[in-house]
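Hey team,

Filing this mostly as a record. A colleague (T.K.) asked me to run one chain through the structure pipeline before their review meeting, and I want the input and output archived in the tracker in case anyone asks later how it was produced. No errors, nothing strange. Just documentation.

Input sequence:
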Amino acid sequence: MNTEESERRSRLLSLKLRALVRDHLGLIADPEGSAEAFMPGAAFVTSDAVWVMIDGDAARSLGGVLAWAPQFEKPIHLLVERDSGIVARRAQLFDIDISVWHVDDRTLLPAVAEPQLISPAASDAHLAFVDLIESSGADALVEHGVVVGEVRGLEMCRVVDDATTGEVRLEVGMGRHDREAFAMVHGELPTEQAMRQVIDAVLPHRYEGADPHPFNSFGVERLQRWRAMQAPTSIGFTRLSPADPPVLRTNVKDAVPCVALGTTDSGVLAAAVFVHGVDLDVVPFAVDAASRLGTSDVTIVVRRRDVVKPIERLANLAHIHVRFAFHS
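Output structure:
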């Protein structure tokens, strides 16, 4: 989308937001207020409230809204067309005056908090590949019922069901397209040999201090989790193991926080959430993850420079105790 299209989209969203607010309040004309620039979406500030509408996927929008809207010191009304249940669930974990609304055509409905995701168990047929994954030199783990093999946090294989035959097999590669390409080029290799070939290519790039390479630019947060699991005391834990995130990871190449669960050095059961880069939504994600895992304590593992003031402010407003552990 070019600049002209983006500006046009922004104007249309602003008009839509004002119409939704007008109809919701039962007014004949638009309420008095000012349109404010807010990405991705639109915002409208009246004398007694801040109205924000998210354009498109809203699952990870709450942090940005809570970082921006409090400057007006008014109650916040957040309007979303998708993922309203996730946003509502996370919003209730903060001491902030915010109402989440689901946009249904031209009607605003109170968003209902979506229950936490229940992870399915991996089937025995899928778990049967764990020994092969580990004997090849990768770490086998199960995330939301999916068996994968990682090399220092970077997914390099996955157990899948053939869409046509239903056959269970282990595919080698990083992401679906990479696995398909690898099968076409190296399909004649025995699976264990293919795994070792990939691991030998990837491993040198997953060490600290390695030269920049695609193999160390993807899954940085999962690499940090792997390192913390080798030395839990480095982030204030005595025990640490991988845990499922509160939402499904849809693309292994996207930078998305990952989760672990363990015991802190003070004996408290706590979640650990690993993130790379400035992520305004990391606190809502982290407290959601902790809530799902049944703990009221979460540590966000991050570079010190990536904890900007809005992130600190959100951490202090959460009902769940949030602390930060820093790495280089």
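Quick notes for T.K.: The chain has three domains: 3-110, 124-206, 219-327. The chain has a mean pLDDT of 90.
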